[in-house]
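Researcher: Quick test of sequence recovery. Tokens follow.
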């Protein structure tokens, strides 16, 4: 059998890549939505919802850092040389939407800015320069440039790094601080329980003395009653 020829064609699956980008942005929105719900304060018709992490600087820091990564140009990419250096250039930006969550049996919602994708702009960017779009998300090992996905992964590692590291992560610092608060509360509870035992013992002792005194008074009352009765009978006889 003689040698033949074959033609191999390689095409980029832009639809699959677009889906991955949409999933990634959706996952980021999921994290930010959770943070917003945990820090929200909402006046409902019959009650007020107050998020358990309202005013918590750690949650605020997570929100700020993720958004700053999405807003900022990718460090290492050059405007005028690289086709894209910002997510906004490929159709990823923020819009005012509604974040909804459930607490107990009630549903709450707040207006908030969420990351959205302009599908037309993204499709145009993918068809125009797929490699440049990829550089916005993944690590370019040749130029040592981290895309947003890599930056967020690094940020997550830093946020959760162990407390005993030289530069502990925000999450581990929060856990350490809350553990300290819980331990202090437990110590206060122990002290109050010991104090209550002492108070109970003192009250029991006072009650015992009072019972003994009442017993004596009852005996004296009985004796006085008997004397009065005897005197009355003697006077009448």
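Model:
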């Amino acid at each position: 059998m003689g040698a033949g020829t074959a033609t191999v064609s390689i095409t980029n699956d832009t639809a699959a890549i677009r889906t991955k980008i949409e999933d990634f942005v959706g996952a980021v929105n999921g994290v930010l939505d959770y943070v917003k719900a945990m820090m929200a304060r909402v006046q409902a018709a019959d009650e007020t919802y107050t998020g358990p992490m309202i005013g918590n600087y750690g949650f605020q820091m997570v929100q700020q850092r993720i958004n700053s990564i999405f807003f900022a140009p990718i460090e290492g990419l050059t405007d005028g040389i690289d086709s894209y250096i910002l997510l906004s250039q490929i159709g990823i930006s923020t819009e005012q939407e509604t974040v909804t969550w459930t607490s107990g049996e009630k549903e709450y919602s707040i207006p908030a800015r969420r990351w959205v994708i302009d599908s037309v702009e993204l499709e145009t960017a993918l068809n125009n320069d797929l490699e440049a779009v990829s550089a916005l998300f993944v690590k370019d090992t040749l130029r040592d440039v981290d895309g947003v996905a890599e930056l967020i992964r690094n940020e997550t590692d830093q946020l959760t790094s162990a407390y005993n590291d030289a530069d502990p992560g925000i999450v581990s610092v929060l856990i350490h601080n809350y553990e300290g608060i819980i331990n202090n509360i437990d110590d206060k509870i122990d002290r109050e329980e010991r104090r209550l035992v002492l108070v109970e013992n003192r009250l029991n002792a006072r009650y015992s003395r009072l019972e003994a005194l009442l017993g004596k008074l009852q005996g004296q009352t009985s004796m006085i009653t008997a004397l009065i009765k005897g005197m009355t009978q003697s006077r009448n006889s």
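Residues 174-237 form one domain.
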